[in-house]
Design brief:
Chains A, B: This is Transcriptional regulator, GntR family. Chains A, B: GO terms for molecular function: DNA binding; DNA-binding transcription factor activity. Chains A, B: Keywords: DNA-binding, Transcription, Transcription regulation. Chains A, B: InterPro entries: Bact_HTH_transcr_reg, Chorismate_lyase_/UTRA_dom_sf, Tscrpt_reg_HTH_GntR, UTRA, WH-like_DNA-bd_sf, WH_DNA-bd_sf. Two copies of one chain form a homodimer. By secondary structure, chain A is α+β, with helices and mostly antiparallel strands. Chain A has two domains: 67 residues, Arc Repressor Mutant, subunit A; 159 residues, Chorismate lyase-like (Chorismate lyase, 3-Layer(aba) Sandwich). In chain A, the strands form two sheets. A six-stranded antiparallel β-sheet of chain A has the order 4-5-6-9-8-7. In chain A, strands 1-2 form a two-stranded antiparallel ribbon. The longest helix of chain A is centred in the N-terminal third of the chain and has 15 residues. The radius of gyration of chain A is 20 Å and the shape is globular. Chains A and B meet through α3, β3, β7, β8 and β10 of A and α1, α3, β4, β8 and β9 of B. Chain A binds a DNA duplex (30 and 30 nucleotides) through α3.
DNA sequence: AAAAGTCATGTTGTCAGACAATTGACATTT
DNA sequence: AAATGTCAATTGTCTGACAACATGACTTTT
């Protein structure tokens, strides 16, 4: 029997659902407005105040809310920062759209392969596990601007899945399907010189400067669903992050 | 009455002290090791378990620890490169200290200047406002690894301030003095090729790849206190960020 | 009338203790 | 040897309470 309220069906871990509900509430609350009081929110979300406060702490750490003792909890201005900031994982397609960049999918390449030692370690799967590698070039203004490679076990994505309405973004596909449930991504930020292969794909010179992200995408159980490395041409993307003073 | 244990004298908010203590403990705990149990930690830190768990949640959000029900809380791997979650703003010096890396101050250069149009716009001050520019080179293992430039109005930092125990880090100085109150920083992430000037300072070749941050540091009133641009040699730093699935 | 002080109220911050859920190790049975 | 049961340890959550703080209304003083 399918649930009526589809948005949050990852009922496996109540804390995640709570976080998701709170995220929605914060997103829907105008900047500067006060959230309901903690006892009220706890009652409404069906959790204790202690649990609610732990969840709230995660949003405070992201600079999304500000709590003032004796006054209340307020949503901070999330106009530019959150939209295009790194705090939220979004597919490159929607990210690019947010900065007003018309993007098209360049070459798309899908390959089945068997996990070598490094890949097995990164994805926490046994060596030899069948994997799917999806690599694609993103174009803007008739020019390649990003090169993205996703690597994930066939358990999560098969060649057959890609037959039907696959736009190129693995993340968007997984999110649309709803399983496995995605929670967060640990992204590392690097600056690299373009290798020959990357240079050819992006139509630049070998050794040119690129911004590179490597990301592990985690499911609810802490399982690695997807490992991706992304190369970005400087100038076409602006990534920023709000860092709080520790 | 001076406290005996000097390390954490920011007693203004007990929660911050707790976070600082926990950060140290996590930094000093070998990767993969288990932390003490929550009741034990709460007792040792002198707080309740609920408060402790809220603080732990912030570190979990940064990917520094992993909690497993029925088993314990573990420190996740942090290698010997300077690794930092971007969620929290810390000086390179304190970052390095946390992982036990010896860093020294290379060349330090301080210059008074008068805000030109761009600088005035960035710092939200009138054109001509007297500014202080602090640039420095960070060395690790007898090699320059980072080049950092801070630009801020003399209202917040004067030449005189730097006479007395200035370690090179503007952030650390402002934090130690406690005014103006720092809240957060909006950091942009770029990849650039080294200019001649930067290449000379970092003893690399012009055109070599560098990771670059530009950051505006905000006070409580939303005022821009400091504008900085930082160049990092790849390989010596590993910055990461936890992105939640929107 | 204006200023200062006082108090009530509402909100977040913290606490103590308890029980539930999960895991891992060990013992027991098949 | 394998499956199952038992138990202790640990994190996850809940309940209720009080402390700290901010705000506004009210009272008192000037």
């Amino acid at each position: 029997m399918p649930s009526l309220n589809a948005p949050h069906t990852s009922e496996r871990h109540p804390f995640q659902r709570l976080q998701s509900q709170l995220a929605d509430l914060i997103a829907l609350t105008p900047a500067g407005d006060r959230l309901p009081t903690e006892p009220e929110l706890a009652r409404r979300m069906g959790v204790s105040r202690a649990t609610l406060r732990e969840a709230m702490r995660t949003f405070e750490g992201q600079g999304l809310i500000r709590r003032r003792q004796g006054v209340g909890t307020f949503v901070v201005s999330h106009n530019h920062v959150i939209e295009s900031g790194l705090e939220v994982l979004q597919s490159i397609e929607s990210l690019a759209a947010k900065i007003g960049l018309e993007v098209t999918l360049g070459t798309l390449q899908v390959m089945r392969l068997s996990a070598n030692q490094d890949q097995a370690a990164i994805l926490s799967v046994p060596e030899g596990t069948p994997l799917l590698e999806v690599s694609r070039v993103i174009q803007a203004e008739d020019r390649p601007v990003a090169y993205l490679i996703d690597l994930l076990p066939e358990e999560f994505l098969t060649l057959d899945d890609l037959q039907d309405g696959f736009t190129g973004s693995v993340i968007d596909f997984l999110l649309r399907r709803g399983s496995p449930p995605l929670v967060n991504s640990l992204t590392e930020i690097h600056a690299v010189a373009a290798s020959s292969e990357i240079a050819r794909a992006l139509e630049i010179q070998r050794g040119d400067v690129l911004l590179m992200f490597t990301a592990r995408l985690f499911s609810g159980e802490g399982q690695v669903v997807d490992y991706s490395y992304s190369y970005f041409l400087p100038g076409y993307f602006r990534f920023h992050v709000v860092r709080r003073v520790g």
